[in-house]
Amino acid sequence: MSKSRNRPFKACRKTGIDLSRPVEKLTEKERNMILFGTGNFEGVAKNLERRFRETESEWSREEIKKYMKETICQTCQGARLKKESLAITINKLNISEITEFSITEMVGWVNSLSLSLREKEIANLILKEIIGRLKFLTDVGLEYLTLGRQAGSLSGGEAQRIRLASQIGSGLTGVLYVLDEPTIGLHPRDDQRLIDTLKKLRDLGNTVIVVEHDATMIREADYVVDFGPGAGKQGGNVVAVGTPQEIIKNPKSLTGQYLSGKKVIAIPITNYQLPITNKLSIFGCSQYNLKNINVEFPLGKLVAITGVSGSGKSTLLVETLFPALQKELNPLYRGEAGIYKKIEGLENIDKAILIDQSPIGRTPRSNPATYTKVFDLIRDVFTETREARTQGFKKGRFSFNVRGGRCETCEGQGQIRIEMQFMSDIWITCEVCKAKRYNAQTLEVTFRGKNIAEVLDMTVDEAKEFFHAHFQIQAKLGTLSWVGLGYMQLGQPATTLSGGEAQRVKLATELSKKSTGKTVYILDEPTTGLHFADVEKLLKVLRLLVEKSNSVFIIEHNLDVIKNSDYIIDLGSISNQYTEVATVVHLRGVLVLTCLGGNSDFDFIDFIVPTQDLLTTRVCETEAWHRATLPRRS
Q1: Which terminus in the chain has less CB density within 10 A, N or C?
Q2: Highest mean pLDDT, choosing among 251-260, 281-290, 569-578
């Protein structure tokens, strides 16, 4: 046992704490000493907190997280301010209560303020400025956000649109704006509002450049630059330029072929008449804006969870259903689930896996090869070479995470971090190993003429061909290629991957594992950053999971994915005309609207508004299914 693990026991013996007594029988003073330390003993809790802050190991961070949870401050009850500040009110509301309003609610509250003539004189300009800024946020589709929402909890698309809203009000001209997929997380209903906002910026005398895959955004552009023809080393060329109409007419443009309808993401002819035999039900979901809802998820199906931005999709799946399943299926799980009453149908599943867009690692040490474990197999191959055996090199020699074979100047990272006091840290290439990660002696060992660093520089598709005789390596690399990552370098640092790429690396990792046929996969907007052709590839992968009797639940705004799902659950709170959970089932090529029984406490919209009309249009655009319709209720 290490010295650090011995310290708590030494401290207990030194202070007279009986180590044979159960923890529950220790006094509060004794427990506090063990957790928070005394004298030279740091304390278990403080030790874990320090290690969590200092470690660069993603594995260590996740292990320590098991013993941590966030709780509301008992002094301010989450208000963040002291009593004196909270004592000041407007219309009986303090500043903390006001920041709990959504943008829409805030507009209504400001407009309803009852002020005296004197108060109006003082507040008039301030209120006008507040309303103006709130309108900018509404124009970019963020009316559902609460004013006090933590910046760290915002998606990339939301954060980008907030910055965009601040620019609209600045009135600047002659500015070049560059936006990276601003439609991420945006319901198709809100696309036009965002486009109109960008056009306002243009009309002020600015230039707006948008990196985008959304068809509506591309069609509304004044000018399009289409890159290709492929991805990674197969890309990097300008394939076509011009107006959207010129792109559509250009035979070299794959994007143009999808925009014109020459290529479509077709709905597969599948037997949708198969009855739903098993289902997973969760009752009384009340976290955040979920209004005590009951939801039934059919198992063994591809289920799309849709709805306008802020309707509660992520709250339902990521913050409630997934942790609820983990708590029921994994006794060691320490996470907290959103508010719910009960869950049924657990006998039909054995595990739940969340595949989100969080990074696969926070330092250059992590990369697709290490995350998928294919690097372990590659190191085995190098260990078996004649040169490695002659020099007595074991598997660890080819790891850049431990001493021996790695470059000690950068400690195997290939880069050196420079801490910047008032800015984000920056990484520079290691001058000794030139980003190769290994020392010279290790790089002398080769397999088929390539050393370990050169293999890490290969793309997935290149490595797949290089290791054609190694079945296990082929299988893992094959899954990366299936999900559209054939262009990615094996050793590409995790810090350079987009959220969508990180998510697909995770998906490939799960695909390479042996399937039990009773797994629930939860994905949060997997089409982020994907071209039309890549969306088509992704759908084939997801369908493969379902064909193995697994269940796939997807949060998605992409209409091509939604139309290819077996079942749709649409959330929202735009209209209270109906109070049921609205769902859609594919049946014999016709989208049939069905409603599960609900109650008056539910706050769901009917599927007719707004997703149905958009989906009907997209389905009708698909030539093979041009007669598919959504029958409306009378």
Answers
A1: C
A2: 251-260
